[in-house]
Each structure stands twice: as C-alpha cells, then as structure tokens.
Amino acid sequence: MEIYLCAPHSNHFQKGMDIYLAGAATGNNNYLWRKEKPDKVMNLFLAGTHAEKNRANSNNDFAQKIHVLESFYYIDDWMIPYIKNHWNFMLDSGAFTFMNDTKNTKGVNWDEYLERYALFINTNDINLFFELDIDSVVGLKEVERLRKKLESLTNKKCIPVWHKSRGLDYWKWMVKEYDYVALGGMASADKKKYRTEFKKYCHQLLFMAHKNNCKVHALGFTEIKTLHRYKFDSVDSTAWIYGNRGGFLYRFNGRTIDKIQKPNGTRLNSKKAAIHNFKEWVKYQKYAEKCL
Prior knowledge:
By secondary structure, this protein is an alpha/beta fold. The protein contains 14 helices and 9 strands.
C-alpha cells in the first residue's frame, strides 16, 4: 500500500492535478498494450499505486484508471477497449502532426479532417477533446469556424487552446464561456524561452480561470521541479519516455520523480525499462491526483 503525505488543498475547487501521460501507447511498451488483455495490463501498471480498498472497489473509476492523452493522428483500433474501460482519456486533435506529415498545408482539407475527428468523438463518446488550434496556419477566424463546427457535430464543448497571440482579452472570454481550457505553446520549438515568459503571467491566468470555475490544462508541461508551484488542473507530457531514450530509469520517491543513471558499461533492456518508467510515472500520477 502506498501512503501519500500531503496537506489538504485550501481551495475547494482545486482537488489536485491530473497528469496525463501522452504517447502512453507508443514506444517500447507498445507491444505490451497490444499483446496482453487490457485487464492484465492495467493490473500491471496500477499495482501498488493506491489502497487495497480502492483496488477492490470495481466502481471506483478514479482508482482503477490511468490518465492518458493520445493524438487522433495515432489512434488505432486496439486502443478502443482502453479508451472505453481503462483510461481517463483526453484526445488531442493531432492537427499539427497531420499537417507536418502532409508537408503541404495548402492542400489540407481541414473540414474533412475535422469531420473524421468528430465522428471518432461521437462513436467512442469522448468527453475531453481539444479544438484544432492551428491559428498559425489558417488564422484565428478560421479556427473559430472549425471550433463551432466541431461543437455542432459533437453536441459537446471542446477544450479551446489559448496561445499568446490570442491576447489577454481572448483568455478572459474563454474562461467565461468554457469550463475547461488549455494553455498551448509549451511544446513548441522555442519552449525554453516561451516557458520563461509564460511563468511571469501564469498565476494571473490561473487566477482568472479559477475565479470563473474554469479548469486549466497545460499542454506539454511536466517540468517536475516547478510543477508544484502552479495550480493547473491537469497537464500532459511525454517526459516518461525520455528515460528509455536517454538510457536511465525513473523512480517515484513518494513525492517526486528521481532519475537513476545506469552504471557505466551496462545497457538497458529497452522494453523492461519502458514498462518500469511508465509504472513509476503512474505512481507519480496517483500522487499528483491527491497532493499537487
């Protein structure tokens, strides 16, 4: 049994932070998701992350599920059972990946792409999904048209994504009109400069949102050493993958994630390392739900 020691949140709106593991079904643990039955895989990843009484309670979805974010561009049929029964799921539009893959933004039929995106959302009853925040490609007015169409096709509100170029007034509008919004740009090419700038006004943006009972998701932000300073409602990151790529292991120490370098002259078993690192990040995920 894991015991998490943390102070209760003073703000009734802030229950803790949901860390969505992005790209969870890709990389060197991909074979495991495909090879084994979903129940077996989930038991492996959830082992030791919460109390026995919660594990035994099949109605406790909060305890039984893992927070996962995946891109629509990479969705495959084998993921559907996980999405329906085993993941607290958040869906990215995959628009930028799709756009970069085509190498020709002028030839992209965004309406056709959006209609396929909406069909998947409807077919699988996805509740948390992002707009196509392609402001830099088609302009904000076109993004707004696509957003309106997406919401009309799904009969649900999407999660709009704020970029600095939209301005402060637009943020104020978003947090009044939506109950869940996202901050974009953290995963950009110049993310170091952006994050330094972003941190200057982040608290103000969060205050505005929470004042309006609006949740905030930070796209691509899991900077472990500073994550506790920001009262995001949720974040996502592929950071858990870096250990396998960099040849080191992650370890959850009860409060945060440590990096363990492999001894000189040794090699990591890439599949075992990927599974281990994912499990450690799931432990951190469960801690964040209660304490961050």
